[in-house]
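Suppose a classmate hands you a notebook page containing two proteins, each written out with its sequence and a corresponding row of structure tokens. How would you begin to make sense of it? This section walks through that situation. The first entry is reproduced here exactly as it would appear on such a page.
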Amino acid sequence: VWIFGYGSLVWRPGFEFTSSKVGFIRGYSRRFWQGDTFHRGSERMPGRVVTLLEDCGACTWGVAYEVRGEQIAASLQYLNMREAVLGGYDTKLVKFHPQEKDGGEPILALVYIATPQNPSYLGPASEEDIAAQIIVSSGCAGHNIEYLLRLAEFMRYFCPQAEDKHLFSIEEALISILPCLYYTEDSPEET
């Protein structure tokens, strides 16, 4: 079984896997439209995390993880709690395209997507408003700023050819609000 991650799963899968590949899925855009009241926010101050929006001309980059044997049940149980129960995400099957030139045929992968019907769905907002909400939110997994910066770092390092205007516009808005926060490819740190 392959599992596609496009948010925190790209740097913190939290389950055992046999192999992983960087690549993309077509027909979806990544958006910071899902609220989070556990991992990156609270009931009082929900954080903003990513979900996928159907978008026929777009593609979303991330990591696909291969799980085999005993890893399958354990990873699906873990992800069901992390993504579905605590996060409000549903599952879908998508075609994953590996980044490697000799990656072969697309791979069918399981992906978690938060739909507008779930109670934590926040929907669209301006990049500035999303950044302002991210700045004031933190939860059990850490500050919401870390989530945004790690995702941007992943995209710059592993997918430099890909454009994610939504992600980088929010990062830019966050940096303009907090000018003491700087970010370089060598060391993503707060100063």
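The notebook's second entry, a different protein, reads as follows.
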Amino acid sequence: GSAAAPLPEEDCMKLNPSFLGIALSSLLAIDLWASKRLGVCAGEGSAWGSARPLMKVIEVSGHGIPWLLGTFYGLCQSDSSAAREVLLNLLFALVLDLVLVAVVKGIVKRRRPTHNKMDMFVTISVDKYSFPSGHATRAALVCRFVLHHLVLAVPLRVLVVLWALIVGVSRVMLGRHNVTDVLFGLLLGYALYSVVEYCWLSPLSAPALFALW
């Protein structure tokens, strides 16, 4: 006859999940399922395994190191004050992108998909985590930056947008990321450009930096 002891709070939550919890669990399950189905280049034996080398070239094109080195080299070689200002802000944007993505990855700590093959081009400690996709974030950021600060013909502008989208898609095809990693990365990179514009570095706002070149 004694009354039954109440269930622990966490058990009650499991037995009576909230609508939000069910929705998030369902979205996560769909994300994992879709990511695995779309990871057609995750290995040589995958459905599109023959396209894996091409996907890895695209991977390098969106990696932070080539962009950082290329921007720094252009900054050192430039003899135009206007070009130096643009390149210095691009360098600032790339560094900000690396720091922000590393912080978010370190906080979220979402593991990479199980079907990912860990043969990525130059990785650091937080690269074992997948959320968000740094390649997708960088691609969206660079895309907006280039479209706003370089005078390009329409075909080239289209190619820049396509490159950003292909970089994002390739992350899922290679099995590096889940779909939501890439989608959030693209949104984050798009928003990050607005921060760069707001904090735009100029000879008036940052004279010490421009004095170096």
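A careful reader of the second entry would note: The chain has one domain: 49-211.
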